[in-house]
Specification:
By secondary structure, this protein is α+β, with helices and mostly antiparallel strands. It folds into two domains: about 1-35 and about 155-230, 2-Layer Sandwich (Gyrase A, domain 2), CATH 3.30.1360; about 40-150, RNA Polymerase Alpha Subunit, Chain A, domain 2. About 20% of the residues lie in helices and about 35% in strands. The chain has helices at about 20-35, 55-65, 175-180, 210, 240-265; strands at about 1-10, 10-20, 40-50, 65-70, 90-100, 105, 110, 115-120, 125-130, 135-145, 160-170, 185-190, 195, 220-230. The strands form five sheets. The protein has a four-stranded antiparallel beta sheet with strand order 1-2-14-11. The longest helix has 26 residues, at about 240-265. Bound molecules: iron/sulfur cluster (2 copies) and zinc ion. One iron/sulfur cluster binds near residues 181 and 205.
Length: about 260
């Protein structure tokens, strides 16, 4: 298996995975989306809400604020915690939000008792408060995974596509239609006017080039063991860490599965 980094920018990573099956590529995608643990606000107590929004709407908004933790590994999932899920500093982190209008309440107004935990983005608007209106909330965040609830999704835009092989046969007459039609600038015309692939990584396999080629000179063949993978985190962790954590999760499960199999024999 080979991994080649194509792009890395904070929350977003793009890499070429070769020598793997589609099931494995899809496994990485799924785990990035829904199985890498992170923190999210789990329960709240609303002491005062004189804003224009109902309590439920406030609860929904606050629950979806992505949270960043410097010490994420030190938190356990409630069901795995020594407290048995009752709630303790090992599995939850408390917060308070207390704002009086006028003004906008932002995600940065959520203050956690652990200074290593903050909103991943400090400028997410929660609600506008008018003169004298108040919002006072206490609550706690827990560490879980996206398959428990979407608010724990560590990955947002995670996907893959097969890397194609683009072949132009000798039937090409140099009309240039495929080059004009390609939405991804994956084709150019060479000195002789013939079409040629220039950037197969960008090809989306849309096959528009095949449709417009009257000479039937274009062939797009997916390479079965190579995938262009893209992962974007929801802000809780850098994209590289997201993919690394996804691989660790897959490894952990494989080890557990192996142990279970050993018990059977
Ligand atoms: S559309 Fe077909 S014939 Fe025209 S340049 Fe492209 S490959 Fe060649
Ligand atoms: S399949 Fe689509 S993206 Fe790929 S080369 Fe053809 S037109 Fe361009
Ligand atoms: Zn606990």
């Amino acid at each position: 298996m080979k991994v080649e980094l194509l792009e890395l920018e904070g929350d977003r990573i793009r890499f070429l995975l070769s020598g793997a099956t589609m099931a494995f590529a899809n496994g990485i995608r799924r785990v990035c989306m829904a199985e890498v643990p992170c923190l999210a606000i789990d329960e709240i107590a609303l002491y005062d809400n004189t804003s224009v929004l109902f309590d439920e709407q406030i609860a929904l908004r606050i629950g979806l604020v992505p949270l960043k933790a410097e010490n994420l590994d030190t938190f356990a999932r409630p069901e795995d915690c020594e407290c048995g899920g009752q709630g303790c500093p090992g599995c939850r982190v408390d917060f308070i939000l207390s704002v009086e209008g006028p003004g906008m309440v932002y995600s940065r107004d959520i203050h956690f008792t652990d200074p290593g935990v903050t909103a991943a983005f400090d400028n997410i608007p929660l609600v506008v408060l008018g003169e004298g209106e108040k919002l006072v909330i206490e609550g706690f965040a827990t560490k879980r995974i996206g398959s428990d609830h979407a608010k724990w999704n560590s990955g947002t835009l995670c996907g893959y596509k097969s890397l194609p092989s683009i072949e132009i046969s000798g039937a090409c007459n140099g009309c240039g239609k495929c080059v004009k039609e390609c939405p991804r600038q994956a084709l150019i015309q060479d000195e002789g006017g013939r079409a040629k692939a220039t950037n197969t990584l960008n090809c989306s396999l849309c096959k528009l080039c095949i449709e417009v080629c009257e000479a039937g000179a274009v062939k797009i063949i997916p390479i079965l063991d190579s995938f262009v993978m893209t992962a974007e985190s929801s802000g809780e962790m850098p994209a590289k860490e997201l993919v690394a954590s996804a691989s660790q999760e897959i490894r952990k499960r494989a080890v557990e599965f192996e142990a279970k199999l050993a018990e059977l024999s």
